[in-house]
Every structure is written in structure tokens, then in C-alpha cells.
Amino acid sequence: MTAHRIGAMRHRITIERAIPTPDEGGGSTLAWERYCDAWAEIEAKSGSEIVASGGVKGRVSHTMRIRYRPGITSAMRVVLGERRFDIVGVRDPDGRTRGLYLDVEERLP
């Protein structure tokens, strides 16, 4: 992602935040609500497979570049169509609030 061309931001994403919702058992579950929509440039970084819970699970990491939006944290996630990405890092590369880099991890079945 060296070139910062606006035309590279061609993916329409939704950023969601988790909202704890009480359940009947006195606990809570997480529900996701829309925080904002943005245009993003997406670059795949790496992929791996891990053995967990008796099966193999895949993970793919990406970097997404969007225009600056305040309040985005690593407690949020990104939705792109049917795909879900956990945000694992948020960077303002030059500190000038012009753009954000979201380091995300996609969970594969």
C-alpha cells in the first residue's frame, strides 16, 4: 500500500462495534451494531492454519486503509459482504488524521 490513490479504495466496508446484550440466564451475549461505513483499500498480508478444538482453522491477515475516522478501536470488527474481519490494530501512520490503517484478521471456516 505505498500509493495513496483514492481509486484504490474500492471496497465498501462496514465497521461494527460489540454491544453486550443481557440474556435470560443473567449473563450477556455480544450483539454487533453498525458503527460506520467506509471505502477501503485491502491488501492481503499472510495466511496460516492452526489446530484448535480438534480441527484445523484458517486465518488470513490483511491491512485495510480507510480515510480517518475517530473512535475506531481493536474491539471492533469489519464486515465485507459475508466476510468478517477482527480488527487487531489501528494505526494513524503519520499522526495527521488523514487516514487509518486497520490490521485485520479474517477467520476462515
Number of strands: 6
Unreliable segments (pLDDT under 50, ≥5 consecutive)? none
Mean pLDDT figure: 87
Residue share in β-strands? over 45%
How many helix segments? 0
What order do the helices and strands follow? EEEEEE
Instruction: Indicate the structural class.
Output: mainly beta
Task: Report on this structure.
With 109 residues, the chain is mostly beta strands. The chain is 0% helix and 68% strand. The model has no long low-confidence stretch (mean pLDDT 87).
List key phrases describing it.
globular; 109 residues; single chain; mainly beta; 6 strands; 6-stranded antiparallel barrel
Could you write a compact summary of the structure shown?
The protein has 109 residues and is mainly beta.
Helices, strands, pairings?
Elements: E1 11-22, E2 28-52, E3 55-67, E4 76-80, E5 83-91, E6 99-108
Antiparallel strand pairs: 1-2, 1-4, 2-3, 3-6, 4-5, 5-6
